[in-house]
Amino acid sequence: MKNKHLISACILGILLCPDASLAQEPAAAEGERLFRSRCGSCHSVDPGENRAGPHLSELFGRAAGSVADARYSKALSASGFVWDEERLHAYLNNPRQAVPGTTMSVSVRDQAQRSAIITYLQNLSTGPVH
Fold it and tell me: What is the pLDDT of residues 4-36, one digit of tens each?
């Protein structure tokens, strides 16, 4: 009798707990949607496709202000940091506070939206993710 209840509980648990990969798909789609709506007019994720801002392909582990042929403020070019999750959170939350003198004025104050965008960018990166 105990085994029957244990088996029933396991089956119920499997049915109620969705596969982690399935749960990530909507999150990834939300990150892409937010990127396109909040960032996509100025940034591309396609290598070499600079717009008003640099492309964000392979962003993680890249030195700030280092994309060839991209327009950067003197402040960002001279910042000397490498993009990682913590730096990107600070920058997207308040670019002009994170890098005084930057020309980027768009911020993403909502932490959940910021996290979704950052996760989307991390998933596009094959380099080191911090």
Answer: 544 444 444 444 444 444 445 677 799 999 999
Residue 120 CA to residue 33 CA, distance in Å, equals 9
Helix axes 20-38, 111-124, angle to 10 degrees: 100
pTM, to two decimals:
0.77
State which amino acid sits at residue 107.
S
Euclidean distance between CA atoms 36 and 11, whole angstroms: 39
Contacts 24+ apart (CB under 8 A), 50-55: 53/104
DSSP collapsed to 3 states, the chain: CHHHHHHHHHHHHHHHCCCHHHHHHHHHHHHHHHHHHHCCCCCCCCCCCCCCCCCCCCCCCCECCCCCCCCCCHHHHCCCCECCHHHHHHHHHCHHHHCCCCCCCCCCCCHHHHHHHHHHHHHHCCCCCC
Lookup: tokens for 54: 């640099």
Residue carrying the six token digits 């004025």: 105
